[in-house]
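Exercise 7. Given the encoded structure of a 307-residue chain, write a plausible sequence.
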């Protein structure tokens, strides 16, 4: 297959070769599973892209007390419903500008412990095995945000494992990066029953801990994976197919010493596995290339020395 990627004698690539390079770069060359995969059926789709989801009204950036900065949630399914105001109180330590990598790592450790001890959703949630706080480089310039842990993540206590995790790894590798260089987290830190979409009241109490993680890492770019993450992070009701590939923005809680952060919404890796069309693969790769450009990075050349 790789032999077909050689340019034509005049150095130009045919359209088929260009598409093949996209596939190769994003690890989608021949099948929805990696070559190391089992060939089993793809992981069940994220609830994210199946059903109406909670959306968040982004908090206004105002120099108010930290508790007042909490996002207000409403459901896309019932837009007339009363908003759910989060009562999360951001500790001053979480609002200050982060220091070096060690300082960021210390902050993440503190948030992790405080979340485990006090998150009203995760303390009440039943049926989950482990909390999945998130992982990666504390000083990452790129952060991926998903929706909630699934089965594999619940068992291991780590984000994005299983088939969707393999696909995310391939996407990261296609960008010339490794999992260790980025930071990965989800809105909810405990698995929902039957993998259902997070409820607004769950997001209202668990979601702010993700905000604190973002404030600690302060990445240059956030990539949201799937509809619910895009809606929550970008504060929009727009569907993922409408906003993917378009630059959005994460607005920090009021009082935070953090600029707004550019957000690139793209499809959830589960959706890519489930909807294995050339168009979806190209759209994801195009989104990731836009992120690389924003970071001032050059995409690796598939099969080349940097790819
Ligand atoms: N999907 C998510 O959104 N998060 C995970 O950690 C795993 C799958």
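Solution.
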């Amino acid at each position: 297959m790789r032999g077909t990627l050689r340019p034509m004698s005049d150095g130009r690539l045919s359209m088929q070769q260009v598409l093949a390079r996209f596939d190769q770069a994003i690890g989608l060359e021949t099948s929805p599973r990696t070559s190391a995969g089992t060939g089993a059926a793809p992981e069940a789709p994220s609830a994210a892209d199946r059903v109406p989801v909670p959306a968040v009204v982004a908090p206004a950036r105002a120099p108010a007390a930290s508790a007042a900065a909490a996002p207000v949630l409403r459901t896309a399914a019932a837009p007339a419903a009363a908003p759910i105001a989060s009562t999360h109180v951001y500790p001053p330590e979480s609002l200050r500008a982060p220091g070096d990598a060690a300082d960021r790592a210390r902050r993440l450790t503190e948030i992790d412990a405080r979340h485990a001890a006090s998150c009203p959703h995760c303390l009440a949630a039943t049926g989950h095995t482990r909390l999945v706080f998130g992982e990666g480089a504390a000083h990452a310039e790129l952060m991926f945000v998903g929706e909630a842990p699934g089965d594999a993540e619940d068992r291991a206590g780590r984000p994005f494992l299983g088939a969707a995790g393999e696909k995310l790894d391939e996407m990261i590798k296609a960008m010339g990066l490794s999992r260790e260089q980025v930071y990965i987290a989800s809105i909810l830190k405990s698995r929902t029953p039957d993998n259902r979409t997070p409820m607004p009241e769950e997001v209202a109490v668990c979601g702010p801990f993700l905000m604190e993680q973002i404030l600690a890492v302060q990445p240059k770019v956030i990539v949201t994976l799937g509809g619910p993450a895009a809606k929550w992070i970008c504060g929009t009701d727009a569907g993922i197919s409408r906003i993917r590939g378009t630059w959005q923005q994460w607005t920090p809680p009021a009082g935070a010493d953090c600029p707004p952060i550019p957000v690139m919404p793209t499809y959830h890796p589960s959706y890519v596995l489930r909807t294995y069309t050339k168009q979806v693969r190209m759209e994801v790769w195009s989104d990731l290339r836009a992120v690389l450009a924003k970071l001032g990075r050059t995409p690796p050349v598939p099969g080349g020395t940097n790819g």
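Remark. The chain has eleven helices and nine strands. Students should compare their own answers with the one above.
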